[in-house]
UniProtKB/TrEMBL annotation:
UniProt-listed Enzyme Commission number(s): 2.4.1.227
Keyword annotations from UniProtKB, A to Z: Cell cycle, Cell division, Cell membrane, Cell shape, Cell wall biogenesis/degradation, Glycosyltransferase, Membrane, Peptidoglycan synthesis, Transferase
Gene: murG
Descriptive protein name: UDP-N-acetylglucosamine--N-acetylmuramyl-(pentapeptide) pyrophosphoryl-undecaprenol N-acetylglucosamine transferase
Membrane topology: Peripheral membrane protein
Role this protein plays: Cell wall formation. Catalyzes the transfer of a GlcNAc subunit on undecaprenyl-pyrophosphoryl-MurNAc-pentapeptide (lipid intermediate I) to form undecaprenyl-pyrophosphoryl-MurNAc-(pentapeptide)GlcNAc (lipid intermediate II).
Domain of life of the source: Bacteria
Organism: Lacticaseibacillus manihotivorans DSM 13343 = JCM 12514
Similarity-based family: Belongs to the glycosyltransferase 28 family. MurG subfamily.
Lineage of producing organism: Bacteria, Bacillati, Bacillota, Bacilli, Lactobacillales
Record-annotated Glycosyl transferase family 28 C-terminal domain positions: 188-351
Length: 362
């Protein structure tokens, strides 16, 4: 099939789209593809690097409060529609898929107007602004969390899981940690605050490094690109068993070798943790729509797969608490099993089925 995909701003919207494309290719279902993003989102760097043809439509997100910026947003959206129409008429897709973020608004809206089959994917437990707008026009809506489904027209909704889960589900331990100067055989803690990094998590990591440095496990601390210089200044010297990097380009390569993650509870991160069965200490971002990271994290906490530490509870004992957990084999094993029980290892196939249904019923 000929597919246009669009989603972005942050990695949590991009990696599910790339995972879906990988599975379409694997099943020999992809005749041609075009990815639509903006020039400013992370997708501009990540998508061409993955070898996917990439084009942009310039849009901007709505501010939550009334502001002049929202008038600019509307006028850009209208401008975006004419470029979207041109792209759709030229590329002639069989289906257009949106994975969230305002970047996907114009192309999905215009595709629906031109009666091209459309599908959106909502990764979170609370509907994003763009998907809430698009849900009235598209044909099908793939979800991950049951909590979100009431926000959408019921007959369009299908629970599919997050395609990134299928991409990582069967990966095996390997030696790629060596690329970071780490020992692939040693127990490893990974710290990262979503795709952009999170200053609160970075600070907690900086405070905990003296404890981690004295432990018998090793730590990979991913700061997020824009925070790397600040953190390097705070950490002029490092213990041998701690490495600090700005970003990991190929996260699936190292995840099978991770014993515990300290991180945000973004939906795509959670899909990876549950597909592979990785225990986690989750620190939800408080600055997201409807506090969805907190809700995302609760499902893992309830199952016993994760500990949840709200930002205000990050204190001087955090490092020691994590170090103790890293050494507690029984608890880690229980958390591993619990995490794995929540994974959806066939999420891409389910989303592909939804796309095929949208095409067939159109
Ligand atoms: C602040 C914010 O608005 N965050 C949202 C954003 O998060 P964000 O973009 O951080 O998304 P997620 O935590 O869901 O996913 C991050 C993705 O980036 C990857 N990764 C991360 C670091 C790195 O160095 N390399 C790398 O490849 C992870 O493996 C994962 O695949 O989108 C998610 C999915 O809609 C939402 O749930 C989050 O609430």
């Amino acid at each position: 099939m000929r597919v246009i995909v669009s989603g972005g701003g942050t990695g949590g919207h991009i990696y599910p789209a790339l995972a879906l494309l990988e599975q379409l290719k694997k099943r020999d279902l992809l005749d041609d593809v075009l990815y639509i993003g903006t020039k400013r989102g992370l997708e501009r760097r990540i998508v061409p690097k993955a070898g996917i043809p990439f084009d942009t439509i310039e849009l901007q997100g709505f501010k939550r409060s009334l502001s002049l910026d929202n008038i600019k947003t509307v006028s850009r959206f209208l401008g975006g529609l004419s470029k979207a129409k041109h792209i759709l008429k030229t590329f002639k897709p069989d289906v257009v898929v949106g994975t969230g973020g305002y970047v996907s608004a114009a192309i999905l809206f215009e595709a629906a107007r031109l009666h091209i089959p459309t599908v959106i994917h909502e990764q979170n437990s609370v509907a994003g602004v763009t998907n809430k707008f698009l849900c009235h026009f598209v044909d099908k809506i793939g979800t991950v969390f049951p909590e979100v489904e009431a926000a959408f027209p019921a007959k369009k909704v299908q629970r599919v899981g997050n395609p990134r889960a299928q991409q990582v589900a069967n990966l095996l331990p390997n030696d790629r940690l060596a690329d970071f100067g780490l020992d692939p055989k040693r127990r490893t803690l990974l710290i990262f605050g979503g795709s952009r990094g999170a200053p609160m998590i970075n600070q907690a990591a900086v405070n905990a490094i003296p404890v981690f440095g004295q432990s018998n496990f090793q730590t990979l601390f991913v700061t997020g690109r824009r925070h790397f210089d600040t953190i390097q200044k705070q950490l002029p010297s490092l213990p041998d068993n701690v490495k600090v990097v700005p970003y990991v380009d190929d996260m699936p390569a190292i995840l099978p070798d991770i014993a515990l993650v300290i991180g945000r509870s973004g939906a795509t991160s959670i899909a990876e943790l549950t597909a592979l069965g990785i225990p986690s200490v989750l620190i939800p971002s408080p600055n997201v729509t409807g506090n969805h990271q907190f809700i995302n994290a609760q499902s893992l906490k309830k199952a016993g797969a994760a500990l949840v530490v709200p930002e205000p509870q990050l204190d001087d004992h955090f490092g020691q608490m994590v170090a103790d957990l890293m050494q507690d084999d029984v608890r880690l094993l229980d958390m591993t099993r619990a995490a794995k029980s929540l994974g959806v290892p066939d999420a891409s196939d389910r989303l592909i089925q939804l796309m095929q249904q949208a095409i067939k019923e159109h």
